[in-house]
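Researcher: Next sequence.
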Amino acid sequence: MISLKTKNSPYVEQSFGVAGKIVLCLVIILSMTTTCQKDDEMDKFMREPSPVITITQIENSLKISWSEVPSTNNYMLDKSSNNFDYSSLFYSEVVHGTFYIDKNPVEGINYYRVRAQKCKRYDLNLSSSERDCREVWSDVVSFNYTSSSRE
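Model: Next structure:
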């Protein structure tokens, strides 16, 4: 006798023959293998190198570039003027390159960080827990910005 718990009912007792037990075991093993393969893919992503940021001043803007992280779904670029309170400047729904032009840098030190993201289910209509995402973060990089137009 084997007891199985289903979503809609408590335990259901069912008698399986030898062939039924073998099929049941194979289904369980296959479902575990599929789950492990998906987790291995996500774990592999977590071992990817972190994005490396470079910043170049172009007139009154800053070009923030970062190295590509293979197999990412998305990049997010965050900015801060105090290295504490960050806001997102760039959020790509799909990967569209590895740079952003900040046309509004603050006078003085600007802090940037990039997050490369990989999701099992990439759909912006889903909550972050439903998407099941992993992130690889860059180091925080600062740039002391001075406006090139002096009045």
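Model: Helices lie at 18-46, 128-131. The CA atoms of residues 107 and 146 lie 6 Å apart.
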